[in-house]
Amino acid sequence: MVMRALPQNIDPPHMSRAEARKQREARNKRAKRGKKVGVLALLVLVIAVLGVGAYGALWYMDRNKAAEDFAGPGGAPVVIQINSGETASEIGATLEAKNVVASSAAFYNAAIANPSEIQKVQPGFYQVPVQSSAASALDSLVAPDSRVGSVVIAEGRQLHDSSDAQTGSLKKGIYNLISEASCVGPVSAQKCVSTDELNTAGASSDLASLGVPDWAMSSVKSVPDKDRQLEGLIAASSWDFDPTATPTEILRSLVEGSAAKYEATGILTAGSGVGMSPYQLLVAASLVEREALPGDMAKVARVIVNRLAVDQPLQFDSTVNYSLDTTEVATTDADRERVTPWNTYAMPGLPATPIASPSIDALKAVESPAAGDWLYFVTINKEGQTLFTKSYEEHLANIELAQQSGILDSGR
């Protein structure tokens, strides 16, 4: 057998010995770097494995902790807020933060076990007992009396209470409705924001703290009766507010939300077409709300625009009624003769403030009134039929029809 010599590192014939030595030194350095990189990669891998293991241990421990649940039955109620679009896990986290449930995961499990119940939970504020079991916390959320800070403001509602001259029934004002919705705590010891507290807050000269928008600021500053300065600035809508907030904070949340609703209609620019500022549009819309049925709103808006254009008093009974505690459709001669900042029989132009919270439809009607030359209108029967005319003589004849139907009969 022929023995072969082992390969030797022979320098290429064209290289000098110095050049060959430099190449060998470079190869040795690369080899050493390679070993270091390998050791470093191995170290990183070990750290990663240890990290995953530690994370897994923490996850396992948190998982066990998350399964904790209170036995119940629960203690004093606290108020929590649920926002639109929140998941069961997010609601559970809120409840855990408020000490209502022991863990968000326990609530999540209760929600998964009762899908029909969790679907009933709507955005808003709720009072639920602390240290409740997850299942009982879910039951509390869907209980009819758990919702707090929820108020519905109907179209045409005013800030203050009034009574009907015909029936004697009380029509609750916005402040009264807010007060009722603000009550929290056990039935035996409920705490509510009073109507007087709301009225005092609403009369503050610090209009910015009340959320009054810039486009209404100068007009509201000049309102002669500060108790009425927020009239019309709380829109007709369904509202949720934090019942644990101060009266000023509650009103600010409602006024700011209302301003956003009004601005979405185009109120900031629509007045250029009818010669009104944004605040004047709101005032006119409140008149339309109190004077017209939905189908006639655009026509009544046109009557307002036409009368203002010729400086003719509006002569709306709704403006006479505004400053009265007892109201009815038919006003008396004495009522109409009373000079107030709102009585449009006693002065030309618009009232000092809105006379109620207008609907968005009423506001849109003023922003885009119907085409017409009408200066007068009167509702002639209890079905709401309303006749419009430019002629005063025709208007007088229409009033006779209204009198014959009994719609203008007085209860006073």
UniProtKB/TrEMBL annotation:
Q: Return the annotated site residues (Important for catalytic activity).
A: E291
Which GO MF terms does the UniProt record name?
A: lytic endotransglycosylase activity
Q: For the region Disordered, give the residue spans.
A: 1-31
Q: Name one GO cellular component term.
A: plasma membrane
Transmembrane portions of the chain: 37-61
Q: Where is the composition biased (Basic and acidic residues)?
A: 14-28
Cell compartment(s), UniProt: Cell membrane
Q: What class of enzyme is it?
A: lyase
Superkingdom classification of source:
Bacteria
Q: Which GO terms describe its biological process?
A: cell wall organization; peptidoglycan biosynthetic process
- Give its E.C. classification number: 4.2.2.29
Checking HAMAP family in the record gives:
MltG
Function (record text): Functions as a peptidoglycan terminase that cleaves nascent peptidoglycan strands endolytically to terminate their elongation.
Q: What is this protein called?
A: Endolytic murein transglycosylase
Record organism: Rhodococcus erythropolis (strain PR4 / NBRC 100887)
- Gene from which the chain derives: mltG
